[in-house]
Amino acid sequence: MTPRFAEGLRAAGHDAVHVREFGLQSADDPTIFEFAAEEDRVLVSEDTDFGVLLALRKAASPSFILFRGLPDRSAATLLSMRDAILHLAES
After folding, report:
1. Residue ranges of the domains in the chain?
2. For 12-51, b where at least 16 C-beta lie within 10 A, e where not — what string?
3. What is the DSSP string of the chain?
4. Which end of the chain is more exposed for a tag (fewer CB within 10 A), N or C?
5. On the CB side of 1, how many CA atoms lie within 13 Å of its CA?
6. Going residue by residue through the chain (91 aa), what tens digit of pLDDT does each one get?
7. Are 39 and 26 in contact (CB under 8 A)?
8. Spatial contact of 30 and 49, defined as CB atoms under 8 Å apart
9. Closest residue by Cα to residue 6 from 22, 26, 29, 27
10. Cα dist. 91→8, 20, 72 in Å?
11. Contacts of 82 (CB under 8 A, 6+ apart)
């Protein structure tokens, strides 16, 4: 997801970060997965590999929200989904 997506969540009062903020933009998926688990974060991605990692490790965390095939990947479109994402994350 875009850094602007994390910015939009922060602007709405949520503790959201983007991997770039931690220098992890080039990190492999297992590294990002471990970071999210250690930070007790929810991963939001278009990358199905995180779901595979979660299943293979039989782990309960980090939680993972997958977006696939979005016709418009603009920050505005993603931010418009913010309420649905937050509802899922709080469940």
Report:
1. 3-90
2. eeeebbbbeeeeeeeeeeeebbebbbeeebbbbbebeebe
3. --HHHHHHHHHTT-----GGGGT-TT--HHHHHHHHHHTT-EEEES-THHHHHHHHHT---SEEEE----S---HHHHHHTHHHHHHHHH-
4. C
5. 27
6. 778 878 877 887 788 899 999 999 999 999 999 999 999 998 888 888 888 888 888 877 888 888 776 666 555 666 666 667 777 777 6
7. no
8. no
9. 22
10. 21, 27, 26
11. 8, 9, 12
Overall pTM > 0.85: no
Token match 């779901």: residue? Answer: 51
As a residue count, the chain comes to 91
